[in-house]
Design a protein that fits this description.
The chain has 20 helices and 19 strands. It is an alpha/beta fold. It folds into 4 domains: about 160 residues, Thiamin diphosphate (ThDP)-binding fold, Pyr/PP domains (Rossmann fold, 3-Layer(aba) Sandwich); about 140 residues, Rossmann fold; about 30 residues, no CATH class; about 180 residues, 3-Layer(aba) Sandwich (Rossmann fold), CATH 3.40.50.970. It has a 6-stranded parallel beta sheet, with helices on both faces. Strands 15-14-16-17-19-18 form a 6-stranded parallel beta sheet, sandwiched between helices. The chain binds thiamine diphosphate and magnesium ion.
Length: about 550
């Protein structure tokens, strides 16, 4: 109880827990604190789901989240989320229950080597002896809670807690328990700042998690902005959507300096640019996260400032060149909106009106492809909504064509696993729901990513939470079709071991967890699904492999 009090006092607002005997006292204390309104408690059967739910809560709230589990394999099931938290710098406090020292190493039931189990990816790894019931220890435990929060500022922390029988007693909470205000984050000590003059050879690259500062710097420096779809910076007049094409052309060759924010993962062209000997690379550090440095020669800094304002004529030429080339590429590939011109609908001419109606019908009946699906989800996301993208082909499709728009798009790009996507989205939705104007959290996933996290659909969620999972079902992992191995391998073996087809029934899966189900095969059905009233909805969208 004292440990959880310490966590709450230091800023923890959410505890995610999975059931178990050894962890019972933590669980009961969390329940008592939740009942008294000091924290929000989320219970998940599967620790893997719990871990990613905690990750989503922390990503969306920006606050550390505690996750509690029992001993044994339960702990190992948190490992994927701990790794993602490490590589993305997300504050996660993992509290695992363990046997006391005298019951370790004797082959006891459900006992493994828990201290150190997460290796060196945790910011702190404490193995605490069983509590003794000394009132002075309660203060130590409270302090430990505050310490854990501080240690988790930029990544995961592991606290392994031994418990001895009796594993819990009655939980009593003082009626006037005041857990105090939430403290702020400590400031950086002596940040490294570089100041640059605007020129016509600099680009700003915003990878995953970069945030709006990347856009602001691109404007201040008069630089084109390469902003990945989950960068949080894909908006504004400097954003270059078809950046992969532009980087391969003369504009790409003209780059002399690249400033990188966040973690770019969605193209080959960006790392190729950063490896080029004639490009000066400046990486703006994300606290706690491994620096993105593919050329191994980047200058790592904390902040970049513009000296003076860019010359508008230079901006028109340099940024304008990138943006108009990007636009030309997109227009040649696929029109933004194939729908007929609206004014034709009210034409005086009956023939023109009829032609409009026919064209409109054709659009609504058109089958859905990946581009349409990615565009439609992006277009339906508003600032109060959340979009969560799985590590399927669809995130790359979205990245290649969705226009700049200031909305929140998340993805687990620390390790780009196909695991935990729906769980992460439910965590994000739960944290967003604390804001009265929260909209819908939509997930865009491939079929394998959705099936990998099927357990997330089996969780009871609070009433009113809106999560819509769009599954682009192409019968397996078709992302591998673009690899060379697709050409060189035996086609049957390739399908068996790479694409891994399945016969999962998504309608039955949705029903098993109490989610509504829709199937969208045309543009009209997709549009319908995007404005569906059901709070929890799985939309299956069949796609060509
Ligand atoms: C946990 C994990 N296991 C395996 C992979 C390797 N992997 C990357 S994409 C992918 C297939 C994704 O399939 P799907 O979600 O259906 O998307 P599609 O490629 O069909 O668009 C796999 C297995 C991974 N990224 N993460
Ligand atoms: Mg697939």
């Amino acid at each position: 109880m004292a440990l959880l009090e310490g966590l709450v006092r230091a800023g923890v607002a959410d505890v995610v827990l999975s059931p178990g005997s050894r962890s019972q006292s933590l669980a009961l204390a969390a329940a008592a604190l939740a009942r008294a309104g000091h924290l929000d408690l989320h219970v998940r059967i599967d620790e893997r789901v719990a871990g990613f739910t905690a990750l989503g809560l922390a990503i969306e709230s920006g606050r550390p989240v505690a996750v509690v589990c029992t001993s044994g394999t339960a702990v190992a099931n948190l490992h994927p989320a701990v790794l993602e938290a490490h590589h993305s710098g997300v504050p996660l406090i993992v509290l695992t229950a363990d046997r006391p020292a005298e019951l370790r190493g004797i082959g006891g039931n459900q006992t493994t080597r828990q201290p150190g189990i997460f290796g060196d990816v945790v910011r702190a790894d404490w193995d605490l002896p069983a509590p003794v019931g000394d009132p002075a220890e309660a203060d130590d435990a409270r302090d430990l809670g505050a310490l854990a929060v501080r240690a988790s500022a930029d990544g995961p922390v592991h606290v392994n807690l031994a418990y001895r029988d009796p594993l819990s007693g009655p939980v009593e909470l003082p009626a006037d328990l005041d857990l105090g205000p939430v403290p702020g984050r400590p400031a950086l000590a002596d940040p490294v700042v570089v100041e640059l003059h605007p020129d016509d050879a600099t680009v700003v690259i915003a990878g995953h998690g970069a945030g709006p500062q990347a856009e602001a710097l691109a404007v201040a420096l008069g630089a084109p902005l390469i902003a990945e779809v989950t960068s949080g910076a894909r908006f504004g007049r400097h954003a270059v959507v078809a950046y992969r094409h532009v980087l391969r052309g003369p504009h790409g060759e003209a780059v002399g300096r690249a400033i990188v924010f966040g973690h770019p993962t969605l193209s080959r062209e960006v790392p190729q640019l950063l490896e080029r000997a004639d490009v000066e690379v400046i990486v703006v550090r994300t606290p706690g996260v491994e620096d993105y440095n593919p050329g191994r020669r980047a200058r790592i800094v904390d902040e970049v400032r513009a000296l003076g304002a860019p010359d508008p004529a230079v901006v028109r030429r340099w940024v304008g060149g990138w943006v108009s080339m990007s636009r030309a590429v997109l227009e040649s590939e696929a029109p933004d909106d194939p729908a007929p011109e609206l004014s034709l609908a009210v034409s005086e001419d009956r023939g023109v009106r009829a032609a409009f109606a026919k064209a409109e019908l054709a659009v609504m009946r058109a089958p859905i492809d990946r581009r349409m699906l990615a565009r439609a989800l992006w277009a339906s996301t508003w600032p109060h909504d959340r979009l969560v993208l799985a590590a399927s082909r669809l995130i790359r499709v979205a990245d290649s064509l969705v226009p700049g728009k200031a909305i929140t798009a998340h993805a687990n790009r620390g390790l780009a696993g196909i695991d935990g996507t729906v769980s992460t989205a439910t965590g994000i939705a739960l944290a967003a729901a604390r804001n009265a104007r929260a909209g819908t959290t939509r997930v865009l996933a491939g079929d394998l990513a959705a099936l990998h996290d099927a357990g997330a659909l089996l969780v009871p969620l609070p009433e009113g939470l809106r999560v819509h999972v769009f599954v682009g079902n192409d019968g397996g992992g078709t992302i591998f079709d673009d690899l060379e191995v697709a050409q060189s391998a035996d086609p049957d073996d390739f399908a068996t071991v790479m694409r891994t087809p399945h016969r999962a029934d998504f309608a039955a899966l949705a029903a098993a967890g109490g989610w509504a189900y829709r199937r969208a095969t045309t543009r009209a059905e997709l549009d319908d699904a995007l404005t569906a009233p059901e709070p929890l909805l799985l939309v299956e969208v069949p796609l060509e492999p």
